[in-house]
Write a structure and sequence with these properties.
Strand order of the largest sheet: 1-2-3-4-5-6
Helix content: 25-40%
Number of domains: 4
Number of helices: 16
Strand content: 15-25%
Distance between the termini: 59 Å
Number of strands: 21
Radius of gyration: 30 Å
CATH class of the largest domain: Alpha Beta
CATH topology of the largest domain: tt1808, chain A
Oligomer: single chain
Shape: elongated
Structural class: alpha+beta
């Protein structure tokens, strides 16, 4: 049940509704205006606790045509429309009336077509309920509950507060951004301070779309993580739970910017650069090199094992490995591999087809029991998946597992025909099958690079600093120098 919809089949308002209809029938008053009044009264009773209002004869504009007048529209306390009402008497063919009204341009997002004996609920252009309600108060209330529960907006606490403060936004197509929802899974987000509840500091990292071309974001498991430690470099903003729904992730950019996108600054500080140059006096080190060095170190199995307990308590501290250049080069390759996953060559998987007619549409992919094959759909199976594809893991899932999890059709629980999310692309039907091969390549190449990483050594300084002093230097993304530095 909805948390806000309170009407029950046994409530006084429901009993009064059926009694009023019976009394009207006894005196032969069955015309639309008479029976409609009883339904309006019931709607107002249901809307009252929500502080919604039923506005009768609600006007709706149409492009290139005269405005329509709906029998009613439910508006919330902020005058936002939530659902349209069209009432008829029992002499009308309700389905025919519905089709005629929709053809004229009546709303199809959430409209309830009602008559005393029947109710048709249209949501998102489809009839989702067709119920006999003349003697069945349970079905009447079920229809109303679903009608009232419909929303195109997920109202969060912060969004409601912004509405109360009358914070408004102006639509700008430039605010549509590609963001990482999960590993190697990007979605479109409307980037706006009103709509995005908690943008954190990422607005400073990617203030304009152009920043996506040059900036990089190093994301690591936040303290107290529950799934295995993860690190991933991205080229766009990320969801808080990037690699695990149970964990948060801290993000460190290569650059930061002013709000207007100007004044690009290195996020690796001058102070940190000095410490690395002191440790490696013969190496030519840039701030970008340090960024890549850190990324490689965070992938080192020995590092993750040795500092497992520390990583759960605090953000990573980075040791000085004997061979800075090798780690910086490996980190650069890893970052390029992970941010450029869509441009990688597809791993050569054997395609086993079950017919001559190609079918690239995905409903839900799954692995075979031995995980060497991926059942793409009823038509296609991909065989020859190497073990390395399952070894490269981000959180509790491999990179390939994330693709299987995210690239599936999501349907409404109450209506299997209603698609909530569809990853298939009409403009690029083979995108998903190609992505599978590319992510397998990314996984295999990642594990090769990780296996080739040189020893971390003991991490001790060779420049005369104490280990405690060097530990302080390892927080390379701090924008201010440590106290006393």
């Amino acid at each position: 049940m909805s948390e806000t919809f309170a009407l029950k089949p046994t409530h006084k308002a429901v009993r009064a509704y059926y009694l009023a209809l019976a009394q009207l029938a006894n005196v032969g008053a069955k015309h639309e205006s008479a029976v409609r009044a009883t339904f309006d009264t019931l709607l107002e009773a249901a809307a009252g606790p929500l502080k919604w209002t039923l506005v009768r004869e609600y006007p709706v504009s149409r492009k290139g045509a005269a405005p329509l007048k709906l029998d009613g529209m439910l508006l919330d306390a902020y005058r936002i429309p939530h659902g349209a009402i069209e009432a008829k008497d029992d002499a009308d063919d309700l389905k025919a009336e519905m089709l005629a009204k929709l053809k004229l341009g009546y709303p199809s997002k959430n409209t309830l077509f009602w008559q005393p004996r029947r109710a048709l609920l249209v949501q998102d252009g489809k009839v989702v309920l067709d119920s006999a309600i003349d003697t069945k108060p349970e079905q009447l209330v079920a229809v109303l509950e679903r009608f009232f529960a419909y929303s195109r907006i997920k109202w969060s606490m912060h969004l409601k507060a912004k509405l109360r403060r009358e914070m408004f936004m102006n639509y700008d197509a430039k605010n549509i951004r590609s963001v990482y929802y999960r590993p190697f899974t990007e979605r479109l987000l409307y980037w706006d301070e009103v709509l995005v509840d908690v943008p954190s500091h990422q607005a400073r990292f990617f203030p304009k779309p152009v920043a996506h071309d040059e900036n990089r974001l190093l994301c690591v498991s936040d303290v107290g993580y529950r799934s295995p430690f993860s690190a991933l470099v991205t080229r766009a903003p990320v969801d808080l739970h990037l690699c695990a729904s149970s964990d948060g992730f801290e993000c460190f950019p290569l650059y930061t910017y002013d709000a207007d996108g100007g004044h690009r600054r290195d996020n690796v500080t001058d102070w940190a650069l000095e410490q690395f140059k002191a440790q490696y006096p013969k190496a030519k080190i840039t701030k970008k090199d340090i960024f890549h060095y850190v990324y490689a170190v965070l992938h080192h199995p020995a590092y993750r094992e040795k500092y497992a307990a520390n990583l759960r308590r605090e953000l990573p501290r980075i040791p000085f490995a004997p061979d800075f250049a090798a780690f910086a080069k490996a980190g650069e390759k890893l970052a390029a591999l992970h941010t450029g996953y869509e441009t990688q060559k597809e791993f050569k998987l054997k395609r086993v087809e079950a017919g001559k007619k190609p079918d690239w549409r995905v409903e839900k992919m799954k692995l075979s029991k031995d995980k060497t094959a991926l059942i793409y759909n009823d038509w296609l199976t991909l065989e020859g998946i190497p073990a390395a594809a399952h070894t490269y893991r981000l959180g509790n899932r491999s990179a390939l597992d994330w693709i299987i999890d995210q690239y599936q059709v999501e349907r409404a629980k109450e209506d299997a025909d209603k698609i909530l999310s569809d990853p298939n692309r009409a403009d690029d039907e083979e995108y998903i099958v190609r992505l599978v091969g590319q992510v397998v390549t990314v996984s295999v190449e990642t594990m090769k690079l990780v296996a080739a990483l040189p020893s971390l050594g003991d991490g001790k300084s060779a420049a005369g600093y104490t280990q405690a002093e060097m530990d302080a230097a390892h927080h390379y993304t701090i924008e201010e120098e440590p106290a006393g530095a």
